[in-house]
Amino acid sequence: MYRRLSMVLFPVFLIALIGAGVWGYREHQEKNAILIKAENQYQRAFNNLAFHMNELNEQLGNALAVGANSSVFHRKCLVNVWRISSEAQNEINQLPLTLLPFSKTEEFLSNISKFSYHTAVRDLTKEPLSDQEVAVLEKLYERSKELSSELRRIQSQVLEQNVRWMNVEMALATQDMQSNNTIIDGFRTVDNKVTEFTDVDFGPSNLNLFNTGKVRKLEGKEISRDEAKKIAYDFLNLPEDLDVTIVENGKGTEYESYSVTVTDERDDGSRLNVDIAKRGGKVLYFMNHRSVDSSRLSVEEATNRADRFLDEHDYGELVPVSYDTYNNTASITFATLQDNVVIYPQKLVVQVALDNGEITGLHATDFVYEGHVRKIEPPTMILEEARSVLNRNFQVDSYQLALIENDLNEEVICYEFTGRINGGIYRIYINSHTGMEEKIEHIKASDQAAQQA
Question: Is domain 383-451 given the CATH code 3.40.50 in the classification?
Answer without folding.
Answer: no
